[in-house]
TrEMBL record:
<protein>
    <submittedName>
        <fullName>Deazaflavin-dependent oxidoreductase, nitroreductase family</fullName>
    </submittedName>
</protein>
<dbReference type="InterPro" id="IPR012349">
    <property type="entry name" value="Split_barrel_FMN-bd"/>
</dbReference>
<dbReference type="GO" id="GO:0016491">
    <property type="term" value="F:oxidoreductase activity"/>
</dbReference>
<dbReference type="InterPro" id="IPR004378">
    <property type="entry name" value="F420H2_quin_Rdtase"/>
</dbReference>
<dbReference type="Pfam" id="PF04075">
    <property type="entry name" value="F420H2_quin_red"/>
</dbReference>
């Protein structure tokens, strides 16, 4: 978790800041449960029509998941896309490994992101974001 937080996430955030997002990645924006400020977290692109799927590597221990539990209204942005708003909900009965397998069919970049993220799983948890209509 420390490598992800201290090395990988800052590099991915920098790429987004420079408008050079890494293919297969996306940004999730939650509202901080204590601060009330926007919090952006790099995630794998889980776009699937009017839904956006995520697998939290550390389940309910992930800060962004705790933020979602406090306020499920979120925004997501995929490379070359715009921000989309939606409502997130935790799906503890969903199979995270199967969800990753399904999402990986969308292309090599997403498959690499999902595979890399899965290497540091401790207690994976599926999260679905129902996107607001355009």
């Amino acid at each position: 978790m420390a490598i992800q937080r201290r090395v990988v996430n800052p590099v991915v955030r920098l790429a987004w800041t420079l408008r050079l997002p890494i293919p297969g990645d996306a940004l999730l924006e939650t509202t901080g449960r204590r601060s009330g400020k926007p919090r952006r977290t790099p995630v794998c692109d889980g776009s699937d029509g009017e839904a956006f799927w995520l697998v939290s590597q550390h389940g309910r221990d992930a800060d962004w998941v705790r933020n979602v539990e406090a306020d499920p209204r979120v925004r997501v942005k995929v490379s070359r896309g715009r921000w989309r708003t939606g409502v997130a909900r935790l799906l503890p009965d969903d199979d995270p490994a199967e969800r990753r397998r399904i999402l990986a069919h969308a292309g090599l970049a997403r498959r690499l992101c999902l595979a890399t993220a899965g290497l540091s799983d401790t207690s994976p948890l599926t999260v679905r974001i129902d996107l607001d209509p355009d």
